[in-house]
Amino acid sequence: GQQLNQSPQSMFIQEGEDVSMNCTSSSIFNTWLWYKQDPGEGPVLLIALYKAGELTSNGRLTAQFGITRKDSFLNISASIPSDVGIYFCAGRSGGSNYKLTFGKGTLLTVNP
Amino acid sequence: SAVISQKPSRDICQRGTSLTIQCQVDSQVTMMFWYRQQPGQSLTLIATANQGSEATYESGFVIDKFPISRPNLTFSTLTVSNMSPEDSSIYLCSASGQGDGYTFGSGTRLTVV
What we know:
The complex is a heterodimer. Chain A is an all-beta fold.
């Protein structure tokens, strides 16, 4: 089955620093999604990408859909303590296949 | 995006019993899904809940263990049957309109003792 390689597994940063995480796949995806999950909650959609090369921002978050359609990255600028959580990438191959494949997640810790 | 209400939010159950989890969406959606998330792990798709027909299960998940209903476009249930401690996990409902804007419920944290 399809697999997503998400890195890094975890990050420890100081408040105010920028963060970058990425996902790669051996197969093509037509949709890339980035989620954040807080403890005890379900994942919350941060950014959705639908077109190769697309660069989309949501406040301090920026994500890009790789040109090869096999990768995506998420950047967080000027991190704050509430950015702490687990970030997941997810991909959908498209067509009649509506299932999402998830990466293993990046645990972000922000030290005040 | 759709808003999902999932209940119960948590439960502690005896082994051998069954638990039914409900998922209510505030608008009609095309796709509904059920996931399992074990502690510290990513999300694993259990099945796609199909309106008016049998759910489509992923490899490793069977209908006898995880029966799913979806009577209409806004509601679905997942039953975890004949539970064992290995079923202790977070179960999540997800919904999508047309393959975009996938949203999730808050999850059901299940502990089997």
